[in-house]
Design goal:
Elements: E1 3-9, H1 17-25, E2 33-38, H2 45-51, E3 55-58, H3 68-75, E4 82-86, E5 91-92, H4 97-102, E6 110-118, H5 125-134, E7 140-142, H6 147-150, E8 161-165, H7 166-171, H8 182-192, E9 196-206, H9 213-229, H10 231-237, H11 241-248, H12 253-274
Parallel strand pairs: 1-2, 1-4, 2-3, 6-9
Antiparallel strand pairs: 4-8, 5-9, 6-8, 7-9
Length: 275
Amino acid sequence: MSYIIIIPTYNGEKQGLENLLISIHNQSLPPEKICIIDSSSTDNTVNICKKYNCDITIIDKKDFNHGVTRQLAVNNNKNYDYAIFLTQDVLLNDDNTCRALLSSFNIADVSIAYGRQLVRDNSSFIEKVSRQFNYGETSLLKSKENIAEYGLSTAFCSDSFAAYKIADLLSIGGFPKTDFAEDMLISAKLILKGKKVYYNAEAKVIHSHPYSIKSEYMRGKQIGKMHKENKWLLQTFGKAEKRGKTLLNTLSFYKKILFILQALPKFIGYKVGKF
């Protein structure tokens, strides 16, 4: 089994990039290569990556795209079996994190595996609730047969910590050009082809960051725009609102009120982006 790690970066010095690279080098199953796609950072990011012998490709900041940039790294490394994607602000939970995630591919027809994301102590209420809901303690295998039960969340995946079988990714044309949710779009396409996506709760990273009202609004707007540009996604898997209602039903009355108030900017952004 050969695998690489791909990390898009931009000014990651203060976001814990060096700690991430240290945690990668400490893995019991180390990668063949750490591929950095840097969007012309203006801080010490590139020097940090050189310190840890990363393979570095620098692109212009304006050329960054959630799908195209990741596909650039894949195209440069087609000879490997698997690619683990990380964002620069995560931290591998222990020395067996990558081994645990890659073990997911021992299950027949699994094309994508993503792991559990644990929040930091300073996370907001809405982030703690959302991550605990999306990344539970129980692993889950998802396929076309689950669409009726899980709806859009059947295709849920996160490239903050996800592994792909490179051959399967290339078989559907690779990551599309998109400003958001390249992971879900690929997951949905592979599921519709009869492949499976595995949520591996035993593979863990620490990943959380506070969102301002503006950033929540912009995130919601990005999601709305993505749904507008990919109508087939909702038509095939169901509406996004269903997932939010399910989450709310897990909360007490007062926590529901707090969650709704904090989630309102994101919801408004979503409606604007989808309009």
